[in-house]
Amino acid sequence: MNEKLNSLDLPGLAEAYDLECKAAQGRDGRGELPEDFWKSYSAMANADGGIILLGVQEKPQGSFQALGLAEIERVRKALWDNLHNRKQVSVNLLDEEDIQSVEIDGKTVLRIQVPRASRQSKPVYIGSNPLGGTYLRRYEGDYLADDETVRRMLAERVEDSRDERILKGFDFSDLDMETVAAYRNRFAAVKPGHVWADLPVTEFLEKIGAYGKNREEGYSGIRLAGLLMFGRAEVIRDALPRYMVDYQERPEAKAEKRWVDRLVPDGGWSGNIYDFFRKVYQKLTSDLKVPFQLQNGQRVEDTPVHEALREALVNTLIHADFTGRVSVLVVKRPDMFGFRNPGLMRISPELAIHGGNSDCRNRRLQTMFQLVGYGDHAGSGIPKIYNNWANRHWRRPVLYEVRDPEQTLMELRMSSLVPEEAIAELEAYLGEKFHALSEPERLALITASTEGVVSHARLREICIEHPADLSKILAHLVRDNLLASDGTGRGMVYFLPWQKQREDALFDLRMGVAGIAGSRTIPPELGSVPPELNTIPPELGAIPPELPPQYLEWNDLPPELQSELLALAEPIRAKPRVPPELLKQTILALCDRRYLGRRVLACLLERNADDLLKRTLTPMVAAKLLIPAFASSSNPKQAYMAVSSSSKQAM
C-alpha cells in the first residue's frame, strides 16, 4: 500500500482525471469484481484513460464513501485472470503498477489506472465482437459506440496512412491542372534544378506520391492523397461524401456565426486542399505586421507568427479525417486564430505538445507539403507553434479534442498572458482583495475573465502546482464567491460571478441534430452557405434558419411560460417515484420546440439535477429522443429539445 487518501480528496481527483467509483462489494459483502467494470475499462481506454476505484461508493454524485474490500486479493486475482482472457476483453493495457491498493478513510480499496489505448489497440472491446462490445466515455458514463465509430477505429488501426489508397474509376481528368501547375512552380522555386522539375505531369505526380500502383491487384491510378491535393471539390466528394473545407473571418471576438469573409468550395475555385492552403494562408497573414529586417541583402517577409500559422494550417489538413462528420474549419478573429480538423489525434495532445512523437493520419499529404517547403519534420510542428507563440508573450495555445462528433481544435490567442484590461476589470470589482490572492488564484480569475470560463485542465496548462492543489485553489475561490461553478468532475467549469456565463470558445458547438451519433447533418456554421453554391452536398440545407429558444435557468423563463410548464409537470412534481415512461413523456412535452437546461427541468420535476442527467436525460439523447444543444455533453450551457420538435420545424 503506497498511498493514503481522504474521501474529501476524491472530488479533486475526479476533476483532474476521469474517475469511476464502484462499490464492488459482491453478494457476500467481502468484495467482488463487478461485471460493469469492463464497460468502464473499455470506455476509458478508448478515450483518454482514467482511474477506477473499487470499494468506493459515489452516491449521490460528487459525494464519496469508502466501503473497502475485505478480500482485496480475490478481486485483484479475478481482475488479472480476466485481463488475459480474450473472451472477456480484447486487450490487456495494464501493468503491475497500474493496479494498487490504497487507503481511503482507513478502508483498503483497489485503484486501477487505465491508460489511453494506442491507435493500434483500439477499439478496446468486451467479448469477441467490436461491433456491440465497444464502449465510449461520455460525461462520466459508459455508452455503447455506434457501428460507424467502431469501423472508423478499425480503419485507423490497420491503415497507417489514410490517404494511401489508390482509387478505381478516377483519372487525370478529375484533377485541376491549374492547381498542379501552381504546385510545380512552387516545387521548382523551392528545389531549383531538381531532377523531378522537368518530368512530364504523370511522372511528376507519381514521384511526389499523388499517383501510384496497387501491386497486389495490379492496377494503377490516382491516390486518395492526389485527389485531395489536386482534385476538384465535386469529384473529391465522389470518393469522400463528407469532404468540406471552410474558412471564416469574423469581425468580433465572439463565438458567433457572423463573418465578413468566407471561403468554401463554391464552384469559383477548385476546392482542393492545396488551393485551400494557398488562399487561406494568404488571408490569415494579410494584415500581420512584419518588422523590417534584411537577410543576404533581401528583406525577410517571414516572422515566427507566419511560421506558426503555416504549421497550424498544414497540421490541420494533414491530420484531418476526411470521412468524419465535421468540416475542416479555419477561423480568423481580431483576438485569435482557430483551427479545427475532423477526427481525434492519433497520439494524446500532451505527447504532441511535448514533441518528438508523430503519427500523421495522411502521410502522403504530409510529404507533398514538405516537398514544397510547408510543414516541419515529424513531431516538431506543434512544439514550434507553442514556442513561437511564447516568444511573443501571448497566451499559451490550446490544443484539445471533442469526442462527439470527433474533432481536434487548436486556438491561438493573440493576447498577453496577463492582459491589462482583465487586471483592470478584476481590480474594479475586487479592489485590493485581488492583489492579496496567491499567483495561481489570480491566474484562475484572469483566465476566467479573458476566456469566459476556466477549468482544472486549462489551469494545469498555465500553472506549475500539483493537480490536487489546483482543485483546492478552485474550491477556495468558489467558497469565497470569487468564482461560480457549473458541472461535475472533469466537466466542471468556473466563471466570474458578475459575468454572464459564456462559451467563449473558437467554435460554436451548438450542433443541434448534428450532435446525434449517426446524423449526416453538418455543423450549423456551414448552414449559412449561399444557395448558389450548388456543389455543396444536399444535407447542408437541413439546418433550420433559426434556433429554438434556450432556457438554462428558471428565471430566464417568461412568467407565462413558467405557468405553462408547471402545468405540464404537475402530474409528477410531487411524486418521488413515477414510471420511467411517464417521466420521459413529460420531459418530451416540456422540451417541445424549445431547449431546456437540466436545472430548469430539475426544478420543474422536483428532481436532483445531476441524477436526472445521468439516469434520464443522457439515455434519452442516446435513444435519439432528445436533441442536445451542444455536441459536448459536459458543456455548461447544455440544454435539450424533443426530437419531434425538430421534425415539426423542418416541415
Strand arrangement in the largest pleated sheet: 13-12-16-17-19-18
Strand content: 15-25%
Structural class: alpha+beta
Can you give the mean pLDDT? Answer: 84
CATH class of the largest domain: Alpha Beta
* Helix coverage percent: 25-40%
CATH topology of the largest domain: Heat Shock Protein 90
Would you summarize the structure shown here?
With 651 residues, this protein is of the alpha+beta class. The protein is 36% helix and 16% strand. The chain has 4 domains: 154 residues, Methyltransferase, Cobalt-precorrin-4 Transmethylase, Domain 2, CATH 3.30.950; 172 residues, Heat Shock Protein 90, CATH 3.30.565; 76 residues, Winged helix-like DNA-binding domain superfamily/Winged helix DNA-binding domain (Arc Repressor Mutant, subunit A, Orthogonal Bundle); 107 residues, no CATH class.
Key attributes of the depicted protein:
651 residues; alpha+beta; Methyltransferase, Cobalt-precorrin-4 Transmethylase, Domain 2; Heat Shock Protein 90; Arc Repressor Mutant, subunit A; 4 domains; six-stranded mixed sheet; five-stranded mixed sheet; 23 helices; 16% strand; globular; disordered C terminus; AAA family ATPase; Schlafen_AlbA_2_dom_sf; RecG_C_sf
Mind explaining what this structure looks like?
Mean pLDDT is 84; it is low at 508-546 and 647-651. This protein starts with a strand and ends with a helix. The chain is of the alpha+beta class and 651 residues long. α2 (37-45) links the parallel β2 (19-22) and β3 (50-54). The strands form 8 sheets. It has a 6-stranded mixed beta sheet with strand order 13-12-16-17-19-18, covered by helices on one side. The chain folds into 4 domains: 4-157, Methyltransferase, Cobalt-precorrin-4 Transmethylase, Domain 2; 242-413, Heat Shock Protein 90 (2-Layer Sandwich); 420-495, Orthogonal Bundle (Arc Repressor Mutant, subunit A); 544-650, no CATH class. It holds the Pfam family SLFN_AlbA_2. This is AAA family ATPase. InterPro entries: RecG_C_sf, Schlafen_AlbA_2_dom, Schlafen_AlbA_2_dom_sf. It comes from Candidatus Nitrotoga arctica. Residues 15-140 form the Schlafen AlbA-2 domain.
